[in-house]
Amino acid sequence: MLAKWPKPNKTSVSANQLRHFAAKVCQPPKATVMALPETIDIVVNDKNLNIVAGSSVTDLLKTLDIRTKAIAVEINHNVIPGDQHAATTINANDRLEVVTLVGGG
């Protein structure tokens, strides 16, 4: 909303009217505060890692930039089948082993 210039009193604008007008016009915009997502600590291949709480195995693999389908994931000594990666949520303090398979000879 635009502030309207005060109508002059008789022949001039008073200092108080000018201050009031300036206070309306010169208001800084209100800041928007964004909440940071909650994070958890986990261990992946013996390295500490901090991830967003509620992340799935698929989310972790994207974070680690692992794009291969030839992969094995273990959480707390339990192998997670590939078709369960999206449905398996990682919890705080979980220990994961991620192994990619490499062909060759």
Quickly list its features:
single chain; 105 residues; alpha+beta; Ubiquitin-like (UB roll); 5-stranded mixed beta sheet; 2 helices; 5 strands
Task: Describe the protein in words.
The protein has 105 residues and is an alpha+beta fold. It has a domain at 39-100: Beta-grasp domain (Ubiquitin-like (UB roll)), CATH 3.10.20. Helices cover 17% and strands 25% of the residues. It has two helices and five strands, in the order αββαβββ. Strands 2-1-5-3-4 form a five-stranded mixed beta sheet, with no helix packed on it. The protein is rod-shaped.
Oligomeric nature of the chains: single chain
H-E order: HEEHEEE
Number of helices: 2
Helix content: 10-25%
Report the CATH topology name of the domain at 39-100.
Answer: Ubiquitin-like (UB roll)
Strands of the largest sheet, in order across it?
2-1-5-3-4
Fourth-level CATH superfamily of the domain at 39-100: Beta-grasp domain
Write the layout of secondary structure elements.
Layout: H1 15-25, E1 39-44, E2 47-52, H2 57-63, E3 71-75, E4 78-80, E5 95-100
Parallel strand pairs: 1-5
Antiparallel strand pairs: 1-2, 3-4, 3-5
Task: Give a quick summary of the entry.
This protein is α+β, with helices and mostly antiparallel strands and 105 residues long.
